[in-house]
Amino acid sequence: MKMMVSVAALVAAGIAGSAQADLIAYWNYNIGAASGSQFPQAPLAANQGNGTMTTNWIQSNYLAFTPSGGSAHNGMNALNGDPDGNDLGLQNGTVTNNATVANEGRHLQFQINTTGLGDVVFTAAMRATATGMQTVTVQWSLDGTNFTNAGTLGTLNTSAYQLMTFDLSAVNAIENQASAYVRLVFSNPARNSSGNLSSGGNVRIDNVQFNGVVPNPGTLALLGLGAMVGGRRRR
């Protein structure tokens, strides 16, 4: 029994120190023209790592925003000392019967390569304007066509950028894949003080990262040892 406990402790210690975070893909969106102009058409290759972003957003509402002054995010989630530069702005678009906006239900889609990696985590600097979309649903797929809901991001701040994180580590299917897909689907635009929807309301996103974990080969050996001892105990 003591040997079983010792091996279990050894395995647990090995797992606790067995992995390191590794960048899968990173987009800094520091391209495009002046704030408020159309952002360059997707697809957009990752600035670092291996990935491609696409979208079905209406092009005229797919904009560059340049955060500055009090609206700057000061390099939140940036790599390599990247400046704030431009953000990607996702505008509501045309309002119909004060009941819906043109881009409700549209998405950003990230195709990433997770070969050799697990426990995928999404992070980004994000904010919404007061009348921007309020709900961001995270979905995943292995074929880019059939998507499964993984959950929603927390409420977007409308006064300042915040670091938004979504842990996909429970989605084992997207681990160790040459091609996996993650979508952010935007919905639920907020109404203004008069109770009206706004075509100009928007969500702004910058410095998107996907990171995964590289397992330590030693962990597998420890797990194997634990299984072997457990098997002997049961016999």
Main features:
235 residues; mainly beta; Jelly Rolls; 2 domains; seven-stranded antiparallel β-sheet; six-stranded antiparallel β-sheet; 39% strand; globular; disordered C terminus
- Helix fraction? 10-25%
Output the structural class: mainly beta
Within the CATH hierarchy, at the fold level, what is the topology of the largest domain?
A: Jelly Rolls
How many DSSP H or I helices? 2
- Helix-strand string: HEEEEEEEEEEEEEEEH
Biggest sheet details: 7 strands, antiparallel
- Count the domains: 2
Estimate the mean pLDDT confidence. Answer: 86
CATH superfamily of the largest domain: Galactose-binding domain-like
Task: Explain the overall architecture.
This protein is mainly β. The chain folds into two domains: 1-18 and 216-235; 20-27 and 43-59 and 92-215, Galactose-binding domain-like (Jelly Rolls). The chain contains two helices and 15 strands. Strands 1, 3, 5, 6, 10, 13 and 15 form a seven-stranded antiparallel β-sheet that branches. Strands 2-4-9-14-11-12 form a six-stranded antiparallel β-sheet, with no helix packed on it. Helix 1 runs antiparallel to helix 2 (217-234). It is globular and about 55 Å long. It starts with a helix and ends with a helix.
